[in-house]
Batch of 2 targets.
Target 1
Amino acid sequence: MNAPLDPSTHAVRPDAVALARASLLESCDLGEPQLDRALGALLRPGVDWGDLYFSEHSGESWVLEDGIVKTASHDRGRGMSARAVSGDKSGFAYSDELDPFTLLQAASTAGAIARSGGRGQLRMRRERASRALYAPGDPGAGFSDPAKVELLHILDREARAADSRVRQVIANLSVARKRVLVCSSDGRIAADDRPLVRLGVTVLLEDKGEVRHGVSGWGGRLPLAELFSEESGRGHAREAVRQAAVNLDAQPAPAGEEIVVLGPGWPGVLLHEAVGHGLEGDFNRKEVSAFAGRIGEKVASGQCTVVDDGSLPGRRGSLEMDDEGTPTGRTVLIENGILAGYMQDRLNAGLMGARPTGNGRRESYACLPMPRMTNTFMMPGPHDPEEIIRSVKKGVYAKNFGGGQVDITSGKFVFSASEAYRIENGKLGAPLRDATLIGDGPTVLTRVSMVGSDLALDPGIGVCGKEGQSVPVGVGMPTVRVDGITVGGTA
Amino acid sequence: MSPDDLSERVADALAHARKGGASQAAASASNDSGLTLRVRMRSVETLESHQGHSLGVTVYLGRRQGSASTSDLSSQAVRGTVDKALSLARFAAEDEFAGLADADRMATEFPELDLHHPWDLDAEQAMELALECEAAALDADPRISNSEGAGVDSGESSHAYGNSHGFLRSGRSSSHSLSCAVLSEQDGRMESDYEFSAARAPEELAPAKEVGAKAAQYTLRRLGARKIKSTRAPVAFAPRVARSLMGHFCAAVSGRALYNRASFLLDSLGKPVFADCVNLSELPHVPRGMASRAYDAEGVATVNREVVGGGMLNGYFLGSYSARKLGMGTTGNAGGAHNLVLQSTGETLEELLAEMGEGLVVTELMGQGANIVTGDYSRGASGYWVKDGAPAHAVHEITIAGNLKDMFRNIRAIGADMDRRGGIHTGSILIDNLSIAGA
């Protein structure tokens, strides 16, 4: 799936804060005096700074199974939290009650973290205008409930028509919206109204008693009407069937080190695991990352430039501002092979003498923010993707991946191929069964010998977990040749 | 919010659903509160106070089903949530299998499970405990070089569940934990590992010093790790990772995977799926058990049973919906399994290693490489190599692979080193002939 990769000029949307105030604060009798009182309670002697975070979300999901839409569910919630920061310490309290008394109580509880030191000052509040990376309002607008049901039936019918061996189709749609407002002791008040839509189709194919599954999904911070068309829906249904059919023919994957060519798009999960997490500010401030203290060192081949960019319009990992009110942007992590920068939130940036990069994210009001990725991808290189595959005498071509994981301290990381093929004498051969690939984050990119020109981002369904918090993210990569990574098959 | 408050909200939701025309309805509500304190490098890092609640409702209009949930438990919000569920149900299709579990399956006896042991813990005490825990790790060895911190977590929860059969129950529970993760360094290479203790009652937590000392011990054990050559060998899964194998088993014999035919253990009831030495029980009423429940998420009574006996599969994990789809009865597992206990074959860890002779002990697994549809298994691993029945050196950056069907049949022994910290109790599991991919 292609998407614009240049940060475009964004329209200014000054009404975001006003709308969020009306919806989250004014309806709960929370006005300027209440905010000031709460921030005052937060800024006890010893507290350097703090913030109040308000959010409300609503979402619905629809599931089709056995050819019928069996159930639909709706979720709604709101709450707020108060955070006080004193040096490297954070005090935090939250509640899903929104009223002046609870707010003050949460602020006092959070402020109790301070013992000595800091002297934060309450500054005049100023609204920060936000940019428009996504359309405001209900992302499901234009789709009635029966239209959502019909959408899932289109996926189901197309998948069943594509192959007579299809035994089951599970299709799902989720449409969500989250409004957040951050009010911090340095006077900043900022808001963001975030749509999030995700569609998916899973098919099970059965042939001679053997069952295989295939999955295809797509999404982003775009209106459903833009993401879904009959054509795109049918395409994803056929893609899920194609993957399941490929898996029916798959042979055991090899066990051991191989030359691996990674296809464009999803395989960018390699970057997310191998270098992304290791370059988050908190791990580096604490020096628990294998990348700690290595800025300026060579950690990848000269062909590799890796960035994190939360300001791409409509992408799943994008945010107009992070959950501390810092605008998102493009952070260069690795430039021509040299480690260039870390992703930061306010706390870790402050302690490291760096600038916040708009990566301070939290799953919900019930969580403390921390440095997180947004959309992480490698810039395109000079090689034609066909040429890259042709260059390999014997190896593996990995086209689709499931999840991954990393041990940031040792740098070891894994990611699991869900669609892969043998490469023999420069040509794609037999499909291979699921296999996990394992490598060493700080050195794997030094083995990248060719970078393709075909940068693609994933289709918009990624979720990243860290310390129990899940957030939507994006990954991307052009076709890349890695000269040696361990493939965990059985053959 | 007390259990009685929650019961009231649930009853209100059910009454509103009936008024709105629901033929059946179920609602559940919960309230959680707690404290989390983390220290790092001998000083406080975060102090978090938690307070949250939610209510969810499922309504049926005949065979049509809709659900909704809210974090706002005001009467107005609860009724709005019920209305939303009703409106969604109108757009769902008729599903002949939809509905509550049968009324005669509702639990009528409620054994005392002893799950509620609040901890009167203030921030000061939590800090002392966490500092003591981390200090025990940091002071254990000069090669312990850094820390990810130690933490104390204490939480209480109230819950209520009711449905239109007239079932309405509420209760309280608590859960507490203590954890620590530290780094070791040697020849410029860093490793980290962790230890934790978790229990319903604070007095059952392991001593802070012990948790810290173990974290240090595990972290030191990883120093000098090497990648090994690809090979086939017996692999012992340490208890903290062995439970994931039982998790894959549960996923494969759970209702939804079975009726979708998305399981490598289809039609395996009454057949040998494990080696003869494997016996697995489900014990839902263990006092203070981490997954103890008198009734499942549909109000159905839970029962003690032998899920696997002598390697034979005696039962699935079904809720009423999947049971109807499969033409069977619910097993009281809507919402999952309740305390699984894998019986040891008696060997201590030392005896297990002696029996293995040469092979791999896995102490950490990475990634999600278990395919429940096919049983294909391939995960990143680290641990240590065993030679002549004794630990030889640490191993990392390898994968282990096989097919779960074969792996379950190839279990040779289950150690006596039982880990009872979670809902799955198991010792080390020794499995023959796995594929190891390395250099």
Target 2
Amino acid sequence: MRKGFSFFTATFLFSFASPLLATINVFACEPEWSALVDELGGERISSYSATTAFQDPHHIEARPSLIAKIRRADLVVCSGAELEVGWLPVLLRQAANTNIMPGKMGYFEAAAQVERLDIPEKTDRSLGDVHASGNPHVHLDPRRIKIIAEALFNRLSILDPQGAEFYQQRFDDFNQRWQLAIEQWQLQARELKGQRIVVHHRDWVYLFDWLGIEIAAALEPKPGLPASPGHISLLTKTLTAEPAKMIVHTPYQSTRAAKRLSQMRNIPVVELPYTVGGTEQVKDLFDLFTVTIEKLKAALI
Amino acid sequence: MKKNSIAPGVLAFAYLYSTVSVAAESRFNPDISLTLDGRYGSYSNTSDYELPGFMLGGEASRGEQGFHLGHTELSMSSNIDDMFFGKFTTAIAEHEGETEVELEEVYVETLALGNGFTARAGRFYSDIGYLNNQHNHSWDFTDEPLIYRGLFGNQLIDDGLQVSWLVPTETYFKVGLEATRGARFPAGGAANEGNGAYAMFAKFGGDVGLSNAWQLGFSHWRADIENRASGTHAHEAGAVETPNYSGESTVNGVDFIWKWSPNGNNREQNLKIQAEYFVRDEDGQVELVGSDPLESTTYQGEQSGWYLQSVYQFIPRWRVGYRYDQLDSDNKGSDSDVLVEAGLDNEGHKPERSTLMLDYSYSEYSRFRLQLSKDDSYEDSDNLVFLQYIVTLGAHGAHRF
């Protein structure tokens, strides 16, 4: 998380980064990846997330503070698959930090480690904000997190060979707890299977793929375009023919359109945490899935 | 899972066969983008545009009336290899009925000098100020601030070399030096064998809490100028005289940007406040080329100006903005008549302008704008109306601060 600092300290504090411990500075584009790095790296790493659960990761500006942070990073962990296409390339070029350029050990794209869904057959801007390399929101499938965790722990071991044994232990421990948690979540989420849910944006593809939930419709007429009244009334008709159980959205999305549709169709609107920090209870990746499933189940009744 | 730890070398080898980047899979072609800009302009004043106290040059003008195209911009950029990045931008525009192709930015930049150092060579927009290094399609208003028009002929662009260093501090701190040819307005003559101009800049920035971000910049530019020509004017007798300046020129500037959005999420609402101030000092000689006998004067000038603007996105897609511009000048010389002819007499007038803007962006790639200004650049007050569209085809643009 970013720390607030006073304006004047900010202006005049040119403290050179002095690593007291030989920790690895990790710049994560999203909170889910800083949380994963924390799981795997413990006290050998120091992680920073460029965004919070309340910010749309598509729409971030290459702010001065982010350039200053990435300048001093040893490892960059991002979703990739063009999620950060508007700002990460700018940060990387501005930072002139050779450790973290694409292709270097210090550059890690999570989506590149796993199979991606929603790979479009054709990419045309008239289809909206589609990603040629598939849907980038891969962190909402815990099975994919597991694969990413293994690749990431390998990467940490390369960057910090002295810690290889340490990372191995942390990964084994995480992996064991994660595997158990997945089984538990799947058990808890059985009743969600086959349910139809309206989404704001296709952020939920991987979660729904894992739990067998069907996307009934999206509030955005095209990915990345705000919901219009015309589109909402069209959805009302669609949902009359084939009803849905609820409408879900992330903490950073506007609830206007969701509320309108909710009134018209009399189905609940559910804000899901989406990532770590999305609600107060969600302090790590385990909480993320536990809370998400709880909230989905609560809305079914 | 493998329980025994693997030697890092083996891991590194294995890594080479894993996917590095999804985006890089099918991307050997450069990023190509084309920006289309169409306008409608209306003025209440038909007299020739001038900015009393400033010798205009470059692209400085009020723009055109009626339906017309702005600059159509074609840009290509790509990593050249793991060491260099290259960029090419050309603008196609019509000037007085002639279609012209202008090379805008053409440069090579290092990617891997490391330690925060970046070097750039070629033709580029100077990093002085805040707006100067941005292409005008990404500006929040249709036209440039008056001080950019008055000092730089809209924008300072030159051929040369830039070296910058991002200091490894907690707060963003970047410094840079530019050495350029100095042949283009507002320099001229490519003095010192084509090493006519220098620039320096320092930028600071950071966040305040989650919702605010700021940047503060200081700039310095200086040039040895040999025969900088500015706007010609015809006399009733038919002789065409071109004011020509030779001497020293120094510009100092400060810029400040503050951005706010709720929790740092700019999607729904955001506010941007931006101000820049520049002052230029010149000391040399002005000649009226074409006059017979040749008229000339010594000239010591100071021209300054600032603008303050704010743009507010109140709901997704819609933004409103207001900008206020003001200029001032104090020019002296041995022959005040020549100063008048050269446009350096401010006629006791302080140019100012107020501008209102409303724009609508259907997506990140299309924007439509209405802009109204009350322009008191010179003594006849002018009311300007612009309608504009800006659309981008091709590569996803950068979300710059």
